[in-house]
Amino acid sequence: MIQHIVDYAGITALAASGAVVGIRKGFDLFGIATLAVLSGVGGGILRDVLLDIDPPSALQRWPDVTLCVVVSIVTTVFAKAVIRLGRLVLVLDALGMGFFATSGAAISVDHGASWFAAAVLGMISAVAGSIMRDVVARDVPMVMGPDDMYAAPAMLGSVLYVVIDHAGAQWLAVVVGSLVATLLRLAAITFHWRLPTGPRDLIAHVHRHPVSPHVG
User: Fold this and answer.
1) pLDDT at 204
2) Whose CA is closest to 46, among 133, 149, 167?
3) Which of 97, 93, 96, 113 is nearest to 105 (CA)?
4) Which residues cross the membrane (predicted)?
């Protein structure tokens, strides 16, 4: 039961972030709903495929996709107010990421995954939907670009869930994992915390002199 509550909270937050991206891109209602669905359930579907859950629970249960569509409609109706909140998509994304990091790990544990697999699948649940959203919207995925930390908070949240759940405190594991992942992501956005990238002079050189894919 607890996993479903956390799962729906994550779906709602991530679907709203996808709808906001669609609105900003000028997509029609179908396009906005598509981004909302990809953001909201894409990570969960990939997690279920890797867990050999057939069909994935997000497609087996009608509320998951329906919730994404409803969220996209509500977000579109209040589009003007949403667009004025410039950082809303990042905040919603952080909330959804935190929820999914723990719910993904929890569902993986329930299906017999090892602690390592559960931690990895928790991170995948948290970031895969946002990657799908950004690819379809023709943006560089936040998790892949030189932006503020994204995958690292998700991984930390899922690891914390696995460790605390192993001690027998599932509710505490959900609260701590979700809270730490979300707050770390929001702190990264606020203070521009980033993981190291390649040497700046080398990156600038590559941009000035790109390597031809046909060399050799």
Assistant:
1) 53
2) 133
3) 113
4) 6-23, 30-50, 62-83, 90-109, 115-136, 170-191
